[in-house]
Design brief:
Layout (H helix, E strand, L loop, with lengths): L47 H10 L1 H27 L2 H31 L1
Helix pairs in contact: 1-2
């Protein structure tokens, strides 16, 4: 949130992606961001103790979380570089391409869901 209480969208996250990875950190840390859906959906949710226990039992979960964290870092780096190196028009073009890409991904997922339902 900004100083005057406005929400700031840092990253669009597609269905199936991971949120809340700070629960894996030791010692516990405060969440810096939150997540919300733009339409009705569902999430799998675990408390901190449970997800930490699951990552010890299934190390692949922890590796997946690290991969997602790396992907987020790449996105933040690209956004920062755009802010310091690009014109306003170039930044707007990137945002529009990014939004179109997200919409395209949702459209492909919907088509895949429909084809599975027909089977």
């Amino acid at each position: 949130m900004t100083g005057n209480g406005q929400k700031v969208i840092l990253l669009w996250i597609s269905p199936g992606e991971i949120v809340g990875m700070a629960a894996l950190l030791e010692p516990p840390t405060e969440y810096l961001v939150s997540a919300e859906t733009v339409r009705e959906g569902s999430m799998l949710v675990w408390d901190r103790a449970t997800i930490r226990s699951l990552t010890r039992r299934y190390p692949r979960l922890y590796k997946n979380a690290l991969s997602e964290a790396h992907r987020y870092l790449i996105a933040y780096q690209a956004a920062h570089m755009a802010l310091i190196c690009s014109t306003a028009q170039e930044r707007l073009a990137r945002v529009l391409v990014s939004l179109a890409s997200g919409i395209g991904a949702e459209y492909r997922m919907a088509l895949n869901s429909m084809s599975v339902m027909k089977s």
